[in-house]
Design a protein that fits this description.
The complex is a heterodimer.
Chain A lengths: L9 H8 L1 H20 L2 H17 L10 H18 L1 H9 L6 H5 L9 H20 L2 H12 L4 H8 L3 H18 L5
Chain B lengths: L6 H8 L5 H9 L1 H35 L11 H67 L6 H17 L1
Helix pairs in contact in B: 2-3
The chains are: A mainly alpha, B mainly alpha.
Chain lengths: 187, 166
């Protein structure tokens, strides 16, 4: 009699059952990604709530082909896309400057052992990167954030966005091109 | 020295995809090395700052936002409990309705009965009134104050005598 291996996603599927543990483990990461993507705290909170609710309701569809984290990022990515397409978002974006508060982010940069001059320079660069995100397209921004803030690898990003890896790379190159230009680099 | 590394190669280096060719170029080219270090440190600082910032914001919102509560699927036991509560409520309401309706029925009976009572009592009253009236009439017609009684007798007798003489 042959022993059959348990399904690869068995542990991950059971992980989806305990929604409180799921929130505890992944909320900070998802919140950061959504907040940096849409620059609106209230909307980010709503999207995070919707993300966990959707994950819980559709947990039966999760086949364990990717990690729970990647699956949640995919749900969040789709919710962000729906949100940014909505007329309400377009109206408020046109009516107000809803860009990320670059100064607010840079103030959270720890000084560490660097000199005051180096710390000031680092803060300025953080602000430059934060402002550069505004110039990116929605896909470029999401892929940049997934790769360089959430440190996901390319196959994970491809799974989360539903794009092939070459397309992910193309978006990443363009995003990096815009950011390097603002940082004063040569292309 | 070969030409500077391309933008795509720089992005690959930023993602940690190093090759021996690129490494040897970086060792030889200070400009590319400096560029790579600047972009790398900028993105690294942005990552560190955004992590700290988002944790701070998440901490603020966690104090005001409620914990996510999911709608639970009802078990069979809970459905039975719900049915039992509904049955009890139905019985209570039915009893209350019946209690409320019973006095109404009585009151309707009283509504019809007083009509008959009123009719009956009015007939009695008429009969009593008639009796009283008859009594009064008879008293008016017949009764004479006691001091006048002899006079009335004498008057009556004289009248009768005078008639008899005629």
């Amino acid at each position: 009699m042959e022993l059959t291996a348990p399904p690869a996603g068995g542990r991950a599927i059971s992980e989806l059952e305990d929604v409180n543990a799921l929130v505890q483990q992944y909320k900070a990461r998802l919140f950061r990604f959504v907040l940096l993507s849409i620059s609106d705290r209230d909307a980010a909170e709503t999207i995070i709530q919707d993300c966990f609710l959707k994950a819980h309701r559709t947990r039966a569809q999760f086949r364990g082909e990717c990690s729970v984290s990647t699956w949640l990022m995919r749900i969040a990515f789709n919710l962000i896309r729906d949100h940014t397409k909505s007329q309400k978002f377009k109206f408020w974006k046109a009516a107000t400057d809803s860009s990320i508060d670059a100064t607010e982010i840079s103030q959270h940069l720890p000084s560490g052992a660097s000199s005051p001059e180096d710390h000031l320079l680092a803060k300025e660069r953080v602000e430059t990167v934060a402002r550069s995100l505004k110039a990116l397209s929605e896909k470029q921004r999401s892929i940049f954030l997934m790769r360089f803030v959430e440190e996901m690898d390319l196959p994970e990003i491809a799974a989360a966005t539903g794009m092939p890896i070459p397309t992910v790379k193309t978006h990443l190159y363009r995003a990096m091109g815009a950011i390097r230009t603002r940082l004063g680099g040569r292309l | 020295m070969s030409a500077h590394i391309t933008h795509e190669e720089m992005t690959e280096l930023l993602m940690g995809n190093r090759t021996s060719t690129l490494d040897s170029h970086l060792q030889a080219c200070a400009e590319c090395r400096e560029e790579l270090d600047r972009v790398k440190s900028s993105i690294g600082s942005f990552r560190t700052a955004s992590h700290a910032w988002s944790e701070s914001v998440a901490g603020e919102t966690a104090e005001t936002q409620p914990v996510i509560s999911l709608p639970r699927a009802r078990s069979y036991a809970s459905w039975w409990r719900l049915a039992a509560v509904a049955a009890v409520l139905l019985i209570v309401f039915a009893a209350a309705y019946r209690m409320e309706r019973k006095p109404a029925i009585d009151s309707t009976a009283k509504v019809t009965t007083p009509g008959a009572v009123i009719v009956q009592s009015s007939q009695d009253q008429i009969a009593q009134d008639n009796e009283l009236l008859a009594q009064v009439n008879s008293e008016i017609a017949e009764s004479v104050p006691s001091p006048m009684q002899p006079l009335q007798i004498s008057t009556t007798s004289s009248t009768s005598s005078s008639q008899s003489t005629k």
